[in-house]
TrEMBL record, chains A, B:
Residues 27-119 form the HTH arsR-type domain. This is Metalloregulator ArsR/SmtB family transcription factor. Pfam families: HTH_5. It comes from Streptomyces tropicalis. It comes from the Bacteria. Keywords: DNA-binding, Transcription, Transcription regulation. Transmembrane segments: none annotated.
DNA sequence: TCCATACCTGCGCAGATGTGCAGCTATGCA
DNA sequence: TGCATAGCTGCACATCTGCGCAGGTATGGA
């Protein structure tokens, strides 16, 4: 298997066959970047707190999220905008209240790891 | 249950009872921060590629990781230093070669989500 | 009509972070 | 002893990102 791209084929390797295994394990670069972006969304304590609250409590209004997390309204709004743009959460308008919920199954799976570790 | 801290108790809420549920779901602030830091380590495409390679291929030398990921040696070394400081990977010296492997079970669990999604 | 509330946006700043380059140390082999 | 290789480190740079403040829009009630 010649999995090593041409631009790196000339380099020395220690365990040549393992390099091919590693390249196969890494997979498509776009796939890696997509997951890195996903992790990046969870890498902020504020956003992570918001998502943990939404994951276990269900649809929540922006003001309530602000009180629950101790953040101020603009910070929550900003965080939710990012998450909404990434397709992680979705907001439903009900009068002048907007309630958010998580719509991304993969993110929900990751949040499960945190919650399970809480004990 | 009066789970709302005193400094936020005066704020208006939309669904008061849900705020308490949310606070309970979020849990300890240190716990949230710890997980955010963990996610932060996986939020870089370079580090994520390294970890995916190590997770499925086993102990790998720095040079081989550099070839497999397309990064240059200092970048790989820097990334591994971060991961080692966080207790995620561990390096074993064998002659002048250092082979790294993953030693953090929680990170390994998260990597499983990426790998499972690869198909 | 007027006002309070719920949410959103833009701007500016401080802090953190990834990157490339040059150079250093240590190991193994001839 | 001399040299090439494996790996590590320090510095300087550009970039990004979260945060707070001020202000804007829209909904609902008096």
């Amino acid at each position: 298997m010649h999995l090593v791209p041409a631009d790196r084929a000339g380099r020395r390797t220690i365990d040549g066959h393992r390099v091919c295994d590693a390249i196969e394990a890494i997979g498509d670069a776009g796939h890696v970047r997509a997951w890195a972006d996903r992790f990046s969304l969870l890498a902020d304590p504020g956003r992570l707190a918001l998502l943990l609250a939404l994951d276990r409590t269900g649809p929540l209004a922006v003001s309530d999220l602000a009180v629950a997390t101790g953040m101020n309204d603009p910070a929550v709004s900003q965080a939710l905008r990012l998450l909404r743009a990434a397709g992680v959460v979705e907001g439903r308008k009900d009068g002048r209240v907007v309630r958010y919920r998580i719509v991304d199954a993969r993110v929900r799976g990751l949040l499960g790891h945190c919650a399970a570790d809480a004990g």
